Amino acid sequence: MIDALLQSSVTRRVGRAVKRDVIQPVYSALAAPFYGAITHVATDEPCVALTFDDGPHPRWTPAVLEVLERHGAKGTFFFVGESAAAHRDVVEAAARAGHAIGSHTATHRSLSRLPAGEAARELADGHAALGDLAAPIFRTPFGSYGIRVAQVARRLGLQCVLWDAHACDWLCLPPGELARLLARALHPGAIVLLHDDLKSAGPEASTDRTELVGALDEVLAANRDRYRFVTVPELLSVGRPMRSMYAGGVRESRAGAAK
After folding, report:
1. 158-170: per-residue pLDDT in tens?
2. Can you give the CATH number for the domain in which 145 is found?
3. Cis before residue 241, ω within 30 degrees of 0?
């Protein structure tokens, strides 16, 4: 019986490895041109899109906005519908400052775990909560994406934007580590995942965004002559959008599942 259990365990591990290393890349290559989410932009222009998920937060989003303004940087905020309704003034402040606004569903549930009808309502209601302040872009919670979500988004006239770099800003990191990871995430055409709030904080997560605000200030100051920090719509205008069925990639700053 022990041999059978060991064999079963090995089989499962091999199956997961085959899915990760063989099936997923082939699936992504075939589906991405038709259904893929935008993960970054192919360009030689020194432009980077910093994106912020899970807000708006009444304390941390204004703090992020202040840092961006100080350095003449623009960002893209993917706001959760229920939070946007509760903090409409913060959404309007971000829009007035020239930042791009996208949706992040209505209640921040993983779309892959929902029936098709509920997933469609999450997307539609989340975007509707932003009204005319929103660009036709959205991001799925946890980067959970697939053909079913793509089809719903297409019917709604929305484009999914994921990312190709992050800094693990949802973790409790040693002092200075977040700034180092964020600096390493920058490259021409990058779409960088960050969070001005955390809707799904695990045991290793920190909902305190003090470290993020400080790291953002440090990295923007150090790179203001090297990169232009632009919105996602602006980034899309300077190069060719690259698409994938998955978030992340070789430029991820550190292993870990994104929030």
Report:
1. 999 999 999 999 9
2. 3.20.20.370
3. no
